Amino acid sequence: MSYVYTSICAFENSIREFVTQKLLEEKGADWWEQCVPNKVRERAETRKEEEDKIRWHTQRGDNFINYTEFGDLISIMRGDNWEYFEPHIVSLEWAQQIIKALERSRNVIMHSGELSEQDLARIGTLIRDWIRQVGI
Length: 136
Prior knowledge:
By secondary structure, the protein is mainly α. The protein has one domain. It has seven helices and no strands. It has helices at residues 2-27, 31-35, 38-53, 72-77, 82-89, 92-110, 117-134. The chain is globular and about 45 Å long.
């Protein structure tokens, strides 16, 4: 299952980079404050503050987006920000379904579970579909 987790992790991080890049291009350096819903922003900032206290352990990164949950990425794309993502994603519902399905598989693996062949095939299909549509 480690190769599947690695694939999902790489995919998740590529979406974080995509969101960051788009909002940085469109809104500038203050995109985090301007574009991220308060609840998502506060939760991520609190997580980072907690990790900052544990100096002996490697942290998730310097950017707050690294402290968001996978599903939070959809929340960031919604609302006023949707216009920046629509040309790439076309349907927010489609993107949300992909992220939810992959998050479910990710959580099974993270808690020492094993996925069926059907789940593995679905993961591959979903990631390929996203890459074909969005280009990342």
